[in-house]
Specification:
- The protein is mainly alpha-helical.
- The chain is built from eight helices and three strands, in the order ααβαβαβαααα.
- A three-stranded parallel sheet has the order 1-2-3.
- Strand 1, helix 3 and strand 2 form a beta-alpha-beta unit.
- The longest helix has 23 residues.
Length: 250
């Protein structure tokens, strides 16, 4: 589902409505499934606290939907078990969000605490992702070659397998940044849309200008249908995938 509000799902071009969600829940419960897994993200571009809290409200409506189906005799499932996993959004290169800022750890921690009430909903198992691991992921995802020195220093300070929550060693990384004279926070902010980006000597096929337009569309909450189901958007992919025949769309 990714986000608790349609507005925020539009920002990330997730064309899933609440009606779609409830239809999927009904199909699952009527078919006898007693467990559903719901995946959300926090820290998405333009997100507000209301968007975060809306996750709780949506999960409550899902639980209520399952109860109503049982009362109506459409389901033999007892209390529906709902596993809710909430991850922290990390902007990535070669996407429209490569210019977006990433929430700092303090903000993500506060937003995770806004969701504590999920634990009070009967049948709900709520889990969140490790903030320190995502902090590091955010830095390394959009880093430059200066980070090679930081990575070596962190390794020599004992950092290993940091993608695993139980192995994350943020103290080693913070010390490595200090020794390298680099502010890790400088990698988490928004990027100038006209500045050169460290990864632009690599190509994934999608043109920078198209990504810029898509980023601006996101900020305006405009969605685009999957190009496999509509017209080609002339994104540039045909340059590495000739079978993609662009038809210019305004």
């Amino acid at each position: 589902i990714e986000a608790g509000t349609q507005r925020l799902r539009n920002v990330i071009n997730k064309e899933v409505t609440e009606e779609d969600v409830m239809r999927a829940i009904e199909n699952a419960v009527v078919s006898g499934w007693n467990l559903v897994k719901l995946y959300f993200m926090i820290g998405l571009p333009t997100e507000t606290d209301d968007d975060v809290i809306a996750i709780i409200d949506l999960v409550r409506r899902i639980a209520a939907k399952a109860r109503d189906l049982k009362k109506e005799g459409k389901s033999n499932v007892g209390r529906l078990k709902i596993k809710v996993s909430v991850s922290n959004f990390v902007p990535k290169p070669h996407t429209p969000f490569q210019w977006a800022p990433m929430d700092v750890p303090e903000t993500l921690d506060r937003k995770q605490k806004l969701l504590i009430d999920l634990r009070r909903i009967k049948g709900v198992d709520y889990s969140s992702h490790d903030i320190d691991a995502n902090w590091l992921e955010g830095i390394l995802s959009r880093g430059d070659r200066r980070l090679s020195d930081v990575i070596e220093k962190a390794y020599r300070l004992g950092a290993r397998f940091d993608a695993w929550s139980d192995k994350t060693n943020p103290e080693a990384w913070r010390e490595a940044f200090r020794l390298a004279g680099i502010d890790p926070g400088s990698y988490l902010g928004g990027r100038d849309m006209d500045a050169d980006l460290p990864w632009e000597h690599l190509s994934c096929g999608v043109d920078r200008e198209w990504l810029k337009k898509d980023w601006l569309r996101s900020l305006d909450e405009m969605t685009l249908p999957d190009c496999n189901e509509s017209s080609c958007y002339n994104c540039g992919m045909h340059s590495i995938y000739p079978q993609c025949r662009p038809v210019r769309v305004k």
